[in-house]
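Quick sanity check, Protein LURP-one-related 6:
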Amino acid sequence: MTNVVPIVSKLYCCSSETVFVVRRRPNVVNGGGFVVSECGSQRVVFRVDGCGVHGTKGELLLRDANGDALLLMRRKRGMVEAVSIYKNWKGYSLEYEGLQNLVFSLKEPNSCLVKNNGIQISTEPRVDSKKSRDFEISGYFPAKNCSIVDSRGNIVAQVGVNKEVEKLMASKDLYHVVVKPGIDQAFVFGVIAILDYIYGESTRC
């Protein structure tokens, strides 16, 4: 039986492994961001609006196939962050009537003094209360060779470029994401949207 891990909603947890295609949009088109489609059917599942859409730096929006807002990702700013060893992001699910519910936090190292210099993610409520984090990023996102790994070291989602696609495209505007069974797909692409922004790609303005 598949272990379901709903973070945004159990509606986005599939019982089987799913392969998605991500196509980035340049900033001159709809303010940047990217479109997520199922690999086989080419059906659009999610869209991510870059900060150029509403002109707010450090703010991203994940939408479903109908264009309804699902997840708001916002980077915490101010003097506290300027002296902190981490840059902090918050992910909020968007409820009816505009209510925001915190579902995850992402910590991006802001200093070389951070041990195990990696990006860490904690969920609300915590998936594993015994660990300091629930997930972390392994690998290097700009090379499209990275994974989201849980606190037990299991890969829950993997970012990569299909070899056939790589031969056809010199850029990384098209890449694949494999999400394991039971994992919240909306959460995965919310994290990927933040990684895209951190490394100055399509969501950044």
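Posting the structure with no commentary besides this: The mean pLDDT is 83.
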